[in-house]
Amino acid sequence: MRKVEYYILIMCVLLFFNATSQQLTPPIQNYSSLQYNAASQNWDIKVDEQGIVYAANNKGLLSFDGQRWELYPLKSGSIIRSVLPHQGKIYTGSYKEFGYWEKDIKGVMQYQSLISLLGEYELQSEEFWQILAYNDAIYFRSFGAIYRYDGKTIYPVQQVVSRGMTVFNDRLVIALEEKGLFYLEENGNLEPLQNQDVLLDRSIVDILEYKESLLICTRDGLFLYDEKGSRAFPDRKLNAVLAGLELNHLIKNSDNELVFGTVKSGILHYNGGTGEIASYSRNEGLQNNTVLAMTQKNGKVWLGLDNGIDAIHLDSPIKFYTDDSGELGSVYDLAFHCDEVYLASNTGVYKLEKEDFKLLPDAEGHSWNLEAHNNVLYSNHNSGTYKIINDDFVPIDVRTGSFEIVPIDREQYLIANYTGIDFYDDELKQIKRLNGINFPVKQLLFENPGTLWAADAYEGIYRIGINQRGDSTTFVKKVSADRQMGNYSARIFKINGQIAVLTNEKWYRYNVFTDGLELLREWHEFNGNRLLAVDNGLFWFINSAGNTLKITDFKETELVVSSKMLNNRTVKDHERLVKRNDSIYYITLHDGFARLNLHELYSMRDNEYLSTPVIQELYDVEQNYDLTATPHISSKNAREVTVLAGLPVSDAIALKYELIGSDSEPVVGEVVDGIIRFQNLPHDEYKLQLSAVSSQNADPVLTSFQFVVDPPWYLQNYMKFMYFLLLLGVLGLIFWINRIKLQKHRRLLRLKYQQEHEERMNNLEKERLIHEITMKRKELANSTMMAAKKNEVLMEIQGELNKDRNKFSNEYRLKHIMSKINRAIKDKDEWKVFETNFNELHEDFFKDLLEKYPKLSNKDLKLCSYLKMNLTSKEIAPLMGISVRGVEVHRYRLRKKMNLDSTENLTNFLIANF
């Protein structure tokens, strides 16, 4: 009987895993040891109140602030086995060691060991596997003892072999090895729980409080304990599944949800309200099947694995189907037909079955589209157009590949293909090419029964008239929105009976009155966003990058599915949205598809949780700064300022920053890997504002931090005071210099005035002297001329007397008269007067003349003086008392004495040289 039950149990487990092998999985974020740069194994994992994740790693304590991983190793290099963030401290336990980590004022993590508080008590070979906060105390549990730390002292409260520890009914409960459950009092006393016979002799794996009961996970199954005692968990299916697994941990995701961690099979997610069980292992995206630790925060479960750390968002409104083999390729379309799921990809058309996907026979190659018309599924394929009948690929037209098939009526269709448009009659099995269209057509849309719109696969939009049957065109007209740029990547839509066109990243509408396209200004904010679908008044847009989906009714409703939520896996420019029902929609991806629950997305929007950004560290090229005060950074060190910022785990999709200075334009950007670097910041007072960006356009959660870049030393306040003093000194010096210059200028003016006055006086004196000299010259000339006249008269008288000499009776008297006349002519006093006056006018004349010609006689000097005055021989003769002939002879002799050339004028010589 036991053997039969065992086989039945094994079959249930196998059936369960087969049924869930291809289930849709929630988003799973993998963090490998290469990403967090530590060891592979993570023995414990917790999330603090802020949302920062801490993991007990083989290399030390790991922390993740949503942007960046940090490793804090112990000095001993020991493996950290347990971790608990509590009231700003992170308690850890390792081999013969426990203590806490705390950030200092500069944001640097520091470790404080608590072993010294044990005093003389010596630890055995113990490793601490669990830490729990209870009643203002911290309890450290090893396999051999439990220690209590009250903030000041630490001591062992019980030395027992325990397997778990939790709080139940506001009391501390521990699970002893094969002895059941006990209340642990603060004094160390153990009190067994009543009515737990079913738990005795069982190996307990984990315990926790669940729905006012104590949930006990054992190697043999799952049990509950409450005031009625202990009993097996009421869900037999869950117990049957758990019995075939090697459980390791148990956590509560919500009041109705449990998550079980296993050693070899990943995790199980159990919904107590619906009874649904889902398993997630390596097949569904986990890095490793051995779950060493688990914790949860806001619907996201964090797993410490034997190889890496994973985060799985169990409450996500989006679930994924992923092909890890690569065989499926990029999915271009998805269709539900006859209760089956078909996928069109770049490798072929597949049918999705419970266990796997299957390529349809002869369906290899790129398939663009899947459409069901008249209860028949059609495939637009790279090699032609096909029907899918009983999973067979039945060709309709294999002359060329096609993009789309559009019904005219129940049996007639238009096929947009690589070379034009074909009319297809399914009843007659006839295909006819529409005339006038010889270009590839990617999209077709009926404006009305007689007018068709076609989008060229490359650069055109056409409006086409067709006859009543639909097998011939009446006109083909190219419609252009921008004649200069063309119409690239054009898409056409029919919205509320109007034709809308997206081309060149802008939205246009067709105006029937002008027969042209005009800007659709109401959709200006959605330029660059392609319309995927219109359903129940909701418009589904996806941006040109293919990573953000917006859902709006253009009124109050606006939902956003970010690239992060879609794991950046959409097929760019070929995204396809498929409606399943009023709430469930499917989106094609590169390696599968995503299922979106619209009701859950609404709930997520209403319950979106945004964490508060944190500033972890601020440092420059030389030092870290105190985060509890306003840091002052020197201008020299501000050439590179680094801020480590975090966005603890939440529903935020990005962390943005804005640096605001009082004298400069704000600097904005997005934080990447938790590092913000500013270079060459000018001196100013700055405010760094971090904002957690909502996925649903809710108001961001902000954190601000202020710091100051001090001015350089030459702009410091004391230097400004020095500059002020220097300015005063310079002004004083300028005043003093100007005063000295003014005094000097005054002296110069006085001196100049004095000089000018003296010069005027000298000029006046000179003029006076010149006048005097002129007068003296005139007087000398006059007196000389008068003397000459006098002598000339005397000489004439003397000549007349000589002529009448014989007439004089008294010869003696005549001689006496002649003698007086001679004395009068040769009057020495007269000469002395002349000489005196002459020397006043011509100083040193005689001296200079005698120095050069010492042999000159007085008579020669006299002749020279007369020649100096520029007197003629006729004027000189009476002055010397000789004849003119005598003067000429005397001049001749004088020339000889002076050795003058006969050609040189004697008078000019004397005037020029003496």
TrEMBL record:
<dbReference type="GO" id="GO:0006355">
    <property type="term" value="P:regulation of DNA-templated transcription"/>
</dbReference>
<dbReference type="InterPro" id="IPR036388">
    <property type="entry name" value="WH-like_DNA-bd_sf"/>
</dbReference>
<dbReference type="GO" id="GO:0003677">
    <property type="term" value="F:DNA binding"/>
</dbReference>
<keyword id="KW-0472">Membrane</keyword>
<dbReference type="InterPro" id="IPR015943">
    <property type="entry name" value="WD40/YVTN_repeat-like_dom_sf"/>
</dbReference>
<dbReference type="InterPro" id="IPR011047">
    <property type="entry name" value="Quinoprotein_ADH-like_sf"/>
</dbReference>
<feature type="transmembrane region" description="Helical">
    <location>
        <begin position="721"/>
        <end position="740"/>
    </location>
</feature>
<keyword id="KW-0732">Signal</keyword>
<feature type="domain" description="HTH luxR-type">
    <location>
        <begin position="853"/>
        <end position="910"/>
    </location>
</feature>
<dbReference type="Pfam" id="PF00196">
    <property type="entry name" value="GerE"/>
</dbReference>
<protein>
    <recommendedName>
        <fullName>HTH luxR-type domain-containing protein</fullName>
    </recommendedName>
</protein>
<keyword id="KW-0812">Transmembrane</keyword>
<dbReference type="InterPro" id="IPR016032">
    <property type="entry name" value="Sig_transdc_resp-reg_C-effctor"/>
</dbReference>
<keyword id="KW-1133">Transmembrane helix</keyword>
<dbReference type="InterPro" id="IPR000792">
    <property type="entry name" value="Tscrpt_reg_LuxR_C"/>
</dbReference>
<feature type="signal peptide">
    <location>
        <begin position="1"/>
        <end position="21"/>
    </location>
</feature>
